[in-house]
What does this fold into?
Amino acid sequence: KKPEPRLVAERPVARSGELRLRIMSDFQDILAERGIAR
It folds into this structure.
């Protein structure tokens, strides 16, 4: 079975969004560890 075109089209956008949030959260954790985060 082929996946629906809609799912294929939406997946890269969702993946990039999740990756961005993941990078942001990791960056916040690094700043928190250094005592820079407020």
Summary: Residues 1-28 form one domain. The mean pLDDT is 75. The chain has one helix and no strands.
